[in-house]
Amino acid sequence: MQYVAVSALSHPGLLRERNEDSLVVGPWTLCATVTESPQTLVFRLGTPLVVAVADGLGGHPGGDVASALVARRIASMGPVLDTEDTVRAVLNACNRAVYQAAEGGELAAMGTTVAGVVVQPGSLLVFNVGDSRVLAADRDGLRQVSVDDSPPLRPGQRTTSLVTQCLGGTPTYRAIHPHVTAAPVSPGDRYLICTDGLTDPLTTDLLEELVREHDDSRAAFELWKAAIEAGGPDNITLAVVRVADD
């Protein structure tokens, strides 16, 4: 029997007044929380298991509402996310739900990014809309397997806070085109899923070093600690996912 271990935490960082990130681990969600110690959950690998982060848009009212809405809907639909088409359909439904919740009220233009994985026996689906990321850790290092929805970077520019698509985020409805890809998965595979509060202040080389040198729970803590030491400019939400045998 194989299982999936997930070590995760969510924190507002040092400069934001509140945490507008949300986290999905199987049927569980963390929304607008403050944690400094990683929580580890272990699941037997059978029905599809979804692990995802949602980052409410900063500068827009209701970012926390949008990310929580999306996280809870994805968690409730997790067991049926067994194909690329199903994942796309659920993400499109989440987009419509954000617009419906914001319609005609003070939360107009609220929005959120989302990124995550669905783990199944022998296979894995990677999905995202926006600039939250999924990175695979293997013998070749840490490589991004999600697709950033961001404008092209200028020479010398490493990150940008702008996104070219997200769930919600505009006064009137705009369709999305989710990124969804399938990949094989086997025992020993590890993934890092995170919001840009982790990837903006830290280089990929540092992320790779921390993931490589520590086990899952310690890696999650050290990643959070490094982002805080780099100024903690944004909300930080991350999950280290590992597939293993009994």
Gyration radius, rounded = 17 Å
Strand count, sense and barrel status of the largest sheet are: 7 strands, antiparallel
Listing every helix as H and every strand as E from the N terminus to the C terminus, the arrangement reads EEEEEHHEEEEEEEHHHE
- Full CATH superfamily name: PPM-type phosphatase domain
The overall average pLDDT, rounded, is: 94
Second-tier CATH architecture: 4-Layer Sandwich
Given the C-alpha coordinates, what overall shape results? globular
Pfam families: PP2C_2
Protein name: Protein phosphatase 2C domain-containing protein
Organism: Streptomyces coacervatus
InterPro entries: PP2C, PPM-type-like_dom_sf, PPM-type_phosphatase-like_dom
Written account of the structure:
By secondary structure, the protein is α+β, with helices and mostly antiparallel strands. It has a single domain, classed as Phosphatase 2c, domain 1. It is 25% helix and 34% strand. It contains five helices and 13 strands. The strands form two sheets. Strands 2, 3, 5, 6, 7, 10 and 11 form a seven-stranded antiparallel sheet that branches. The longest helix is centred in the middle third of the chain and has 19 residues, at 84-102. It is globular and about 50 Å long. Pfam families: PP2C_2 (PF13672).
Layout: helices, strands, pairs:
Elements: E1 2-11, E2 21-25, E3 28-31, E4 39-44, E5 49-56, H1 63-77, H2 84-102, E6 111-120, E7 123-129, E8 133-138, E9 141-144, E10 167-168, E11 179-184, E12 190-194, H3 196-199, H4 204-213, H5 216-229, E13 236-245
Antiparallel strand pairs: 1-4, 1-13, 2-3, 2-5, 5-6, 6-7, 6-10, 7-11, 8-9, 8-12, 12-13
Helix pairs in contact: 1-2, 4-5
Domain PPM-type phosphatase: 3-243
Pfam family, one: PP2C_2
Protein name: Protein phosphatase 2C domain-containing protein
